[in-house]
Amino acid sequence: MSRYVLRRILQTIPVVLGTTFVIFAMVFALPGDPIRALAGDKFLAPSVIAQLHKEYHLDDSLPIQYAKYMSGLAHGDFGRDFNGDAVSALIRERWPVTVKLGLTAWVLETVFGILLGLLAGLRRGGVVDRGVLLLTTVVISVPALVLAFLAQFVLGVKLGIFPIAGVADGWPVSYLLPAVILAALDLAFIARLTRTNLIENRRADFVRTAIAKGLGPWRVVGKHTLRNSLIPVVTYLALSFGYLMSGTVIVEGIFNLPGLGNLVFQAIQRQEGPVVVGVSTLLVLVFILTNLVVDVLYGVLDPRIRYD
Questions:
Q1: Engineered SS bond to 53: which of 58, 141, 166, 281, CB 3.0-4.6 Å?
Q2: Is residue 85 in a domain?
Q3: 53 in any annotated domain
Q4: Could you tell me if residue 4 is inside a domain?
Q5: Contact status, residue 249 vs residue 265, Cβ threshold 8 Å
C-alpha cells in the first residue's frame, strides 16, 4: 500500500509543475505593463518603474521568473502583490468565505442530487422521473453565468428572497443563492448518475436474490440497491469538492463575495499577476490533493487497483 501511495504522490509532481507553469505563462503573456496599470493616471518616474520591475522580476524571462516563483513556493512563499502585501496574508483573509461557499454548495449537491436521483430511479418513467430529467437537462444546457444572473435578478431583485451581493447577512443567507448556482451543474450530474445506477442495480442478480429471500422493498433498496448505486456517486462527489473549491471565481465575482475567487477576479482586472498566480496555484494544489486522496481511497477499497 505504501508503494502505491508513493507512486501516486510522485505522479502528482509533474501535474503540479505543468499546471503552475501554464498559469504562470498565461499571466506572463498578459499585454501591458502591470506597474503602469497600477499607477493609473498618476505619473511614475522611470527610475521608480525600473526599481519595481527589478523588485518583482518583471524584466526577467519567463523561465527565470517561474524558477524564482517555485523556489519561493517551496518555502511557503506565494509572493507579494504590487502594494507589497503578502499573497499568503490575502489568502488567509479571504479563504473562510470560499470554504463556506464551497462546503454549502457541496452539501446541497450531495443531498438534493442523491434525493432527486433516488426518486427518479424508483419511479422510472413516471412524472417525477420525467420532471427530474427535464430539470437536469435545462440546468446542464444553461451556462452558469446566465443562470447566476437570472437567479440574482428573479430571486434577489424581483422577489427579494435572497441578498444579491456581499456577506452582510452572514451564513447561510448570504451564501445560499450563490451556493445553489455553484452546485447546480454537479447536482444535475449526480441526480442523473444516481438514477442510472439505481435502475441498473435494480435489475441485478443480487437484488433479485434479496427479493426472493423475502426482504422488504425498503430494505432491498436501502441495504442492497442504493448502497451499490452510490459507489460511483461517492467518487464523483469527492472529485466535485475539488472542482467547487477551484471554480468559485465567476460566482464570487457575480455575487461580490469577498473570497478567493473574487480576489482573483479583481486581481485580473488590476493585472496583479502575483495574486492571480498565487491564488490559482493554491486552488490547483487543493484540487490535485483531492484527486490524490480519491486515488488512495480507490486503493483501500479495491486492492486490485494498487497493482495497475
A1: 58
A2: no
A3: no
A4: no
A5: yes
Task: Please state the domain count of the chain.
Answer: 1
Per-residue b/e over 258-273, b at no fewer than 16 CB within 10 Å? bbbbbbbbebbebbbb
CATH number of the domain enclosing 133: 1.10.3720.10
Beta carbons within 8 Å of 175's beta carbon, 6+ residues apart:
100, 101, 104, 167, 257
Q: What is the pLDDT of residues 90-113, one digit of tens each?
A: 888 888 998 899 999 999 999 999
Distance CA 217, CA 140 (A): 32
Q: Supply the DSSP symbol for 82.
A: T
Which residues are CB-neighbours of 182 under 8 A, at least 6 positions away? Answer: 101, 102, 105, 144, 244, 247, 248, 251
Count CA atoms within 13 Å of residue 202 on its CB side.
17
Q: Which residues of 9-34 are buried (b: 16+ CB within 10 A; e: fewer)?
A: eeeeeeebeebbbebbeebbeeeeeb
> pLDDT for 194-229, tens place per residue?
898 888 877 766 666 666 666 666 666 666 677 777
Centroid of chain to Cα 44 = 39
The torsion angle over the Cα atoms of residues 155, 161, 166 and 168, rounded to 10 degrees, is 180
Alpha-carbon torsion, ordered 229, 179, 248, 265, to 10 deg:
170
Which single residue is written with the C-alpha cell 506565494? Answer: 78
Q: What CA–CA distance (Å, rounded) separates 214 from 198?
A: 20
pLDDT number for residue 240: 85
What is the DSSP code (8-state) at residue 124? T
Q: Which residues of the chain, if any, have pLDDT below 70?
A: 1, 30-34, 36-42, 44, 204-224, 246-247, 298-308
What is residue 44's three-state secondary structure? Answer: coil
| Structural domain range at position 240 | 95-261
pTM to 2 decimals? 0.78
Residue 187: its pLDDT value, please? Answer: 92
